[in-house]
Amino acid sequence: MSTxxxxxxxxGAPFRDLRxxxxxxxxxxxxxxxxxxxxxxxxxxxxxxxxxxKQAAYFPKPDGHAVPVVxxxxxxxxxxxxxxxxxxxxxxxxxxxxxxxxxxxxxxPQDQAPCQQVVHREGAVRDILPIPTHSEHDNGPYxxxxxxxxxNPVTGAQNVSIHRIQVHAPTRMAILILPRHLWAFYKxxxxxxxxxxxxxxxxxxxxxxxxxxxxxxLDSDEMEIAGALHGAPLRVVKCRTNDVRVPADCEIVIEGRxxxxxxxxxxxxxxxxxxxxxxxxxxxxxxxxxxxxxxPIYHTIVPAEMEHLLLGSIPREATLLAHLQRSFPxxxxxxxxxxxxxxxxxxxxxxxxxEGQPKNVICAAFGAHYDIKQVIVVDDDVEVHDPQQVEWAVxxxxxxxxxxxxxxxxxxxxxxxSTTVGWNHADGETAPAHQQGISAKMGLDATRPVVxxxxxxxxxxxxxxxDVDLAAEIDTAARVDFATxxxxx
Length: 489
Fold this sequence. Notes:
Blueprint: H1 6-11, H2 18-27, E1 31-33, H3 43-51, E2 56-59, E3 69-71, H4 77-84, H5 91-100, E4 106-107, E5 118-120, H6 125-128, E6 142-143, E7 146-151, E8 158-162, E9 165-167, E10 172-175, H7 181-191, E11 196-202, H8 206-211, H9 222-230, E12 235-238, E13 245-247, E14 252-266, E15 269-270, E16 276-277, E17 280-292, E18 298-299, H10 306-327, E19 331-336, E20 345-350, H11 357-368, E21 374-379, H12 387-397, H13 400-403, E22 404-411, E23 438-446, H14 470-473, E24 479-481, E25 486-488
Parallel strand pairs: 1-2, 3-18, 4-12, 20-21, 21-23
Antiparallel strand pairs: 2-3, 5-17, 6-9, 7-8, 7-11, 9-10, 10-17, 11-14, 12-13, 14-17, 15-16, 19-20, 22-23, 24-25
GO molecular function, one term: 4-hydroxy-3-polyprenylbenzoate decarboxylase activity
Domain 3-octaprenyl-4-hydroxybenzoate carboxy-lyase-like N-terminal: 23-98
Pfam families: UbiD, UbiD_C, UbiD_N
């Protein structure tokens, strides 16, 4: 791997290539190279989890496989900002700008695309790629960091999203498709009695990975958002066996079709709420080809750990902030708490101007995304990225009899085990789709009154505390003689 990535960091430019980003992490002590031969079943995920948020993990020859595996290279919020070339405080605005001003991609010839340097027209997926089994009760190996790219059968516009993919046969893979854009494309193809052409891109750069999780309108191509994050059009290439365009500089591409009416059992699988989802009948990808770079690197995400949670939370935060600020320009910041698995618990910073306003903000937040289960609104003197400060606001500014909002029977996340997804009929079958994910929503107004007496709600602070330079104030050479109380050097 080249170490020229350091120039990206020095200039503040975004990292356009996975290998340059990994080299930069290695140069800065944030990439751990694990011993060769680590087992793909459980052990690889166990080591990556122990390193989560501290170092990315690079596994050469896992289980003797020729292709190395990397995990955890986006496991800190600060790292993601650094990869884009902005500060953490600028991260949401930069992502929001990219989502609002996408750049059309640039198609290159197939013979110039690194991801098609090697082409496999046949062969078992697990023989070609080192696919780990992550959690204790997972039903076998899963692709967890694959960008699933598909074209709208009507318009030809593309969609990019991440889905868990169970590799249970040589050339067949079961995929979980939630009722979002990929599902709409599939149902349209199914109505036409046609397969849906797809590609699974593995080993993309951090910015393209992040862009794949944007909450964008139907027929908005997330690869164009990736281009805007990069500051230049993303290079794409047409697949060898279908018309899908994929990131030309990614490591690996699996080309295939989601077959109409073809279902197979999938699951259980350890999901982002840190629980297992049920075994159910799922759609199937029939694999037509695998292409990759020479000496490719396979990326896996350990489910429910920081890389997984941050990829889900940061794009949602940017979308939620934009949504709330359209009606409430005095909303200053938002944060999807990691304790709420980066999806369910939203903290909102508000410069309150009217009593009752936080309750309106709470209702608007629930309408913004059905996953949100709890909203806490705090004042502008509370840092929403610090859970301890949010808890302090709830402890001192919230009273349940006047500040609590509860909405029963709303649509929530089907992966939240406390909803009806865990409810069984008498015959042992799971609840039908239209009854899954039914959830209560809770909002907490943890703001102080707009007008209050003297300093009763004024946050205690010491003048000058934010300006203290401890390096200048502390005498590191001094030693106290506790017999006399004197100081010597």
